[in-house]
Amino acid sequence: MSAVEVGSGTAVDAGVGAGSAIRPRRRWSTRFLRSELRLIAGRRRNQMGLLVLAAVPIIMAIAVKVSTPGPGEGPNFLSSITSNGLFVPLAALGVEIAMFLPLAMSMLSGDAVAGEANLGTLRYLLTVPVSRTRLLAVKYVSLCIGALWGVTAVALPGAVIGIALFGTGDLTTLSGSQISFGVAVWRVVLVMLYLAAGLAGLAAVGLFISTLTEQPIAASIALLIFTILSWILDSVPQLSWLHPWLIVHEWMSFGDLLRDPIAWANVLRGLFVDGVYALVFWLAAWARFSSKDITS
Amino acid sequence: MSSTGDASGLAVHTEGLTKRFGQQVAVDAIGMAVPRGAVYGFLGPNGSGKTTTIRMLLGLVEPSSGSRSLLGLPLPSGAGQALPRVGSLVEGPAFHPYLSGRSNLARLDAADPLADPRTAAGRIDAALDRVGLRAAAKKRYRAYSLGMRQRLAIAAALLAPRDLLVLDEPTNGLDPQGTREVRSLIGSLAAEGITVLVSSHLLAEVEQICSHLGVMREGRLVAQGTVAEVRGAGPMLVRVQTRQPEAAAAVLRELGVTQVVTTVGEVHGTPGDLEPEKIVSALVYAGVGVQGFTVAVTSLEDLFVSLTGEGFDVSG
Fold this sequence. Notes:
Chain B: Residues 12-243 form the ABC transporter domain. The complex is a heterodimer of chains A (296) and B (316). Chain A has 296 residues and is an all-alpha fold. Helices cover 64% and strands 1% of the residues of chain A. In chain A, helix 5 runs antiparallel to helix 7 (132-166) and helix 7 (132-166) packs antiparallel against helix 10. Chain B has 2 domains: 7-232, Rossmann fold; 236-297, Alpha-Beta Plaits, CATH 3.30.70. Chain B is elongated. The chains are: A mainly alpha (296), B alpha/beta (316).
């Protein structure tokens, strides 16, 4: 996704037009992407959303701390888990990936195209001109970065309060073995990237929906319904043939990254499905948007 | 019909440009010709297809058939080269409400792949100055009055050097003072050599500043050309004040004046190609006492109404 803002041509053809306003084409710029990220980050509603995402691990950490029995009193497995604060971001990510993080992506992707169409700013972007392909590419990259912000908003405060309350002891893996704090940090980063990739796949669906309507709320709700429906279908055993192709199916496999050694099979399968969703729905968005009459 | 010259001398050129939305024909095979350097008044009642035409010119809407070119470059293939030289205001201002006026312009500038970031601040200030919005630049857009919003949209159209400005109803929502300012702004831009296409449903707003006119009615371009040419398309009227109206009417009819109407003390008719001087001398030669003689060019207002129909009804 790094090549999205390459200018589409080289020098302006000297033979065409002799007007005073011909400007040299600039080759490389991330200005539009940075402007897009500032727009997302500067919006009050999005800032509130990040606060909500960050509140969950804090609440969880405090609740566990308050209810944890003292050393030697409680069951052994609980005290072994709580010897390392990093369980807090991991548990919070596990809780929020189901609904809160997809909700955040719904809000952002609703704004992406439908929001601009609703405000009328879409027509002014397109007449700047921003090519429609470039617009979709920049919008999608900004959604992917938004996904990273989302998981970071959960994991970073979670890690900080977890470490503050529970310390930096060894982390007990799901395989039962212990890994050092330094290794555990990298595992948490892997989990964050894996979940962000899943959200990025979902964002492509959201971007596609966003090109279908001029109502950002409608686009947001549609993506939320898509997510909920995916979870429901994933829980119906009779539809097991469909499960491998549901984007949410392997999301919970992030736990495999906490095994010793890491069990890659399901994680790679999950990344593959995320990639398929990203590609298919981005192309669908492009096919829809590149030929659309902009009457908003 | 107009002094078009060859196609490369046209800032805007369309042939058979048509747009259908389902069954409805919004724009019906129009052939627009806007010469470079012109101030082209694009007139027509609400709903006559002006905005759809402008959207097609800017590449927002794909025509059902026909061709269009901007600054000599055919669309859609030449859009990437033509559009950076075109500033536009389409169907009212539209900005992010929670950003300031300045930040909104900065965002549009950032989106422009040809804009130089090093000169962005200066260009934004200059554009804001030009529309008199510098003092309110840091206010949030949502706090702007309708007139300020309209000015900001014009500032956005002036962010980069342009060869063509397409302004759709630029004086909508402005008070008389603001309308006058926009008019003088358009005049000064035209003086710099920028071609301006300005649409309006109010003739009075544009008639003083336009060199060319195009009149839309129900999706068709019913008249186009220089102001004089379009005026010329309307009928001329001669009035003769006399004590002998019957005799005067006979002379006029003999000369080939049509639609001769006699009233008390006056005769009027449509002279066609006949020179007014010949009518006067013929009247005098025939011994008709002439008390007064006037040649009235049909007012643009009358012409506009005759071309587009009466009243407030939205056509189409």
